[in-house]
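Students often ask why inverse folding is considered easier than folding. One informal answer: many sequences map to the same fold, so there is more than one right answer. In these notes we will look at a single instance of the problem. The structure comes first.
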């Protein structure tokens, strides 16, 4: 059996041995270690971590900005919910407001008039969660409500399941003069992912009192809708009133903590990586010099 001589590093950084091609990986690896060590010897200082720290710093700043933005969203949404709750707590109005109603959104309004049993609009994409936490999908039913002076208000009478969309399958619209109470809802803007209202099929994705009035040929319709409170609708029948949500999904604090945590983790990981890199380089330099 032939003896194998131990490899050595020549002045050009190549390993020489008698076994030839089978040690090709060692040749490449040895040259890489040698060139790295020579770089350190020539520069007399470790390779700079500045590019690493610069990239990590930019990422940390972005993560902190995202966390701060989520905190701003948190305060903004809390302000909306507080404004809604304060509006509902105020004494109900008794006169139909005119003009822009955004300043009195979610105020209670008491009216006396009659429903139009021949016209109703169906708002799609609605849901109802019962006391057991079970949810079901369906529609909101919107019916014109005309006052003694001829003014008409579009009233959201509440939720019905999908299979009760047909008015003949549920309790009839209350007849005669009715006194109702509801929450004022300004016309909302359609989101970019919300479909267009299908007027021909009477399927609505965005409540728009003016568009509904035009579709039904009605005049004198005010530019807002009224969401019935629970006491103004049937107790155990459909539509089920009192479905207006005053609270909004508010997970922005969790989102902010997530972004801040990611920033902290990135700082720690970058520091550990830079330290291990320096230690590895120092050890390589020591081995090469030895």
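Output (designed amino acids):
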């Amino acid at each position: 059996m032939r003896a194998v001589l131990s490899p050595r590093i020549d002045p050009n950084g190549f390993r020489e041995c008698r076994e030839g091609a089978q040690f090709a990986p060692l040749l490449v690896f040895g040259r890489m270690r040698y060139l790295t060590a020579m770089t350190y010897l020539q520069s007399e200082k470790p390779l700079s971590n500045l590019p690493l720290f610069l990239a990590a710093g930019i990422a940390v700043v972005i993560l902190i900005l995202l966390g701060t933005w989520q905190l701003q969203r948190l305060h903004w949404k809390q302000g909306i919910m507080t404004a809604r709750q304060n509006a509902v707590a105020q004494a109900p109005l008794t006169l139909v407001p005119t003009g822009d109603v955004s300043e009195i959104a979610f105020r209670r309004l008491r009216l006396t008039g009659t429903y139009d049993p021949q016209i109703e609009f169906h708002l799609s994409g609605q849901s109802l969660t019962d006391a057991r936490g079970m949810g079901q999908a369906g529609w909101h039913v919107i019916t014109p409500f005309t006052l003694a002076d001829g003014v008409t208000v579009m009233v959201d009478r509440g939720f019905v399941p999908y299979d009760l969309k047909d008015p003949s399958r549920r309790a009839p619209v209350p007849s005669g003069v009715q006194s109702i109470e509801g929450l004022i809802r300004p016309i909302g803007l359609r989101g970019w992912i919300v479909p267009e209202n299908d007027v021909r099929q009477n399927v609505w994705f965005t409540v728009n009192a003016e568009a509904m009035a035009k579709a039904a040929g009605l005049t004198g319709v005010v530019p807002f809708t009224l969401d019935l409170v629970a006491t103004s609708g049937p107790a155990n029948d459909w539509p089920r009133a009192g479905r207006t949500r005053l609270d909004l999904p508010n997970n922005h604090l969790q989102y902010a903590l997530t972004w801040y945590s990611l920033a902290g983790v990135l700082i720690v990981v970058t520091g550990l990586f830079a330290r291990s890199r320096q230690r590895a380089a120092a050890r390589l330099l020591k081995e090469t010099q030895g």
